[in-house]
């Protein structure tokens, strides 16, 4: 049996795209391998949100040059967001002529056809469609048997000045609710217990559909699917979060009490330059509403350091919001120039030394708060969806709480196979910055 390897960079939507390609390859008779030397097909699914992600692609492609020489029949494909950028496909073809296939984010459903064409051609096949139709029924080989990603919409209409996503993923397009419900129902029948709904901005779900539907209503409908016990979602844009959505999170037992709400900056001046369409004050009002309506809710966020024109005062505003909101965790990034975005041409680019100094100060604050919040769990019993063997300790199991906390726990006296996919009571004994340790509560 021939083998394939897919390497993925980027967000959860990239991960789900890779699961779809794996599903198509499996249906074609291939099997997965984690070893490049054993693979007959290697696929790089790329990201272009930050420069570092692109550099990884270049480095890994360079490594494949010698492997291709020793295995001339090896098929190398590069796809994803990076390839949708203007001129990128031609650049890859010129500098890495041993690549067989290049395609983008809009035509993954054509992967088997493109792969067949690439196998029969002596030249690099490039297919970068500008139009995008939502294709249903694509086979998916999911990484987990317990929890699954479910994309509910594609693209983005927000055009934040630092972000390349709207240019490579296209404008917003929502899936029909009936198709989403059908997919989730099928997942339940297959034994899945948790779903994570994906979209660049799930709060704007439903715009453009004929049916009277929005994200809050979709969550309500999905909560009626029997067998599914937890519903997560990301990402929420602060400008579009509604009181109706907050009410659903509060009152629907299946919707997890965790909201990922990207801040990006605590400075209203910088937020305006970013085209985020909310102010520091509006963000704080939303955070306060979530915390007051849903006691114990976990709030996580994204923060960019060093956006063009960011002053020390602007940075202090960001630290101020972090101190007031007290995020459970934060993904922190150094601003990365992306050609094709308005911010790329902005003057007053922040010095790299200053960026790193601010980044380290932010990280110290975020991590100290995260540890303090996790310490509050010590001695408490929490409900954990058992997912797998712990990656850090093979004698323990791992899973997450309703609030998204990673828990590693001992299960003495229990059979691990009987626990997978179930929600168990776990008593927390010790807290760390990024995880909790405990044992099954008897």
Kindly describe this structure.
The chain has 442 residues and is an alpha/beta fold. 34% of the residues lie in helices and 21% in strands. It contains 13 helices and 19 strands. It has a six-stranded parallel beta sheet, sandwiched between helices. The chain has a five-stranded mixed β-barrel with strand order 15-16-17-19-18. Helix 7 links the parallel strand 10 and strand 11 (230-234). It is globular. The termini are far apart. The relative contact order is 0.08.
Write the layout of secondary structure elements.
Blueprint: E1 3-8, H1 12-27, E2 31-32, E3 41-46, H2 51-70, E4 75-80, H3 88-95, E5 101-103, H4 111-120, E6 125-127, E7 147-151, E8 153-154, H5 165-169, E9 173-174, H6 177-189, E10 194-198, H7 215-222, E11 230-234, H8 243-251, E12 258-260, H9 268-273, H10 280-293, E13 298-305, H11 312-325, E14 329-334, H12 352-375, E15 381-389, E16 397-401, E17 406-410, H13 416-419, E18 423-431, E19 436-440
Helix pairs in contact: 7-8, 10-11, 11-12
Number of strands: 19
Q: Quote the average pLDDT.
A: 94
> What best-fitting shape do the alpha-carbon axes yield?
globular
Helix content: 25-40%
Number of helices: 13
- The end-to-end distance, rounded to whole angstroms, is 47 Å
Structural class, please? alpha/beta
What topology, given as strand order, has the largest sheet?
2-1-3-4-5-6
Query: What is the strand content?
Result: 15-25%
Stretches where pLDDT is under 50 for at least 5 consecutive residues are none
Q: What does the radius of gyration come to?
A: 23 Å
Please summarize the sheet with the most strands: 6 strands, parallel
């Amino acid at each position: 049996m021939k083998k394939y390897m897919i390497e993925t960079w980027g967000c959860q939507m990239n991960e789900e795209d890779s699961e779809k390609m794996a599903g198509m390859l499996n249906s074609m008779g291939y099997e997965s391998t984690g070893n490049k030397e054993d693979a007959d097909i290697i696929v790089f699914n790329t990201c272009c949100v930050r420069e570092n992600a692109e550099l990884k692609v270049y480095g890994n492609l360079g490594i494949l040059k010698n492997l291709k020489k020793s295995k001339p029949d090896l098929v190398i494909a590069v796809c994803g967001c990076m390839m949708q950028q203007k001129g990128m496909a031609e650049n890859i073809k010129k500098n890495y002529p041993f690549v067989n296939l290049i395609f983008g984010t809009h035509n993954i459903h054509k992967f088997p056809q493109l792969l067949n064409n690439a196998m029969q051609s002596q030249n690099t096949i490039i297919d970068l469609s500008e139009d995008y139709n939502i294709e249903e029924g694509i086979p998916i080989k999911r990484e987990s048997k317990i929890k699954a990603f479910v994309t509910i919409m594609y693209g983005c209409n927000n055009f934040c000045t630092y972000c390349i996503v709207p240019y490579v993923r296209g404008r917003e397009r929502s899936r029909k609710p009936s198709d989403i419900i059908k997919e989730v129902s099928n997942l339940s029948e297959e034994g899945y217990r948790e779903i994570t709904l994906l979209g660049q901005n799930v709060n704007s779900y439903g715009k453009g559909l004929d049916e009277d539907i929005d994200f809050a209503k979709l969550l309500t409908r999905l909560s009626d699917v029997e067998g599914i016990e937890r519903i997560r979602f990301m990402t929420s844009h602060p400008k579009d979060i509604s009181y109706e959505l907050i009410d659903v999170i509060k009152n629907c037992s299946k919707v997890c009490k965790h909201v990922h709400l990207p801040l990006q900056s605590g400075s209203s001046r910088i937020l305006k330059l970013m085209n985020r369409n909310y102010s520091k004050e509006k963000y704080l009002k939303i955070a306060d509403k979530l915390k007051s309506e849903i006691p114990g809710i976990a709030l996580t966020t994204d923060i960019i350091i060093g956006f063009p024109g960011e002053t020390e005062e602007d940075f202090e505003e960001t630290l101020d919001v972090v101190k007031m909101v007290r995020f459970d965790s934060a993904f922190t990034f150094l601003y990365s120039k992306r050609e094709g975005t308005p911010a790329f041409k902005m003057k007053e680019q922040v010095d790299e030394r200053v960026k790193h100094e601010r980044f380290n100060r932010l990280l110290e604050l975020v991590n100290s708060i995260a540890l303090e919040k996790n310490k509050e769990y010590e001695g408490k019993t929490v409900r954990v969806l058992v997912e797998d063997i712990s990656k850090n300790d093979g004698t323990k199991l791992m899973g997450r709480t309703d609030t998204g906390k990673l828990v590693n726990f001992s299960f003495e006296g229990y059979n691990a196979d009987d626990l997978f996919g179930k929600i168990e009571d776990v008593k927390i004994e010790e807290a760390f910055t990024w995880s909790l340790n405990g044992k099954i509560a008897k």
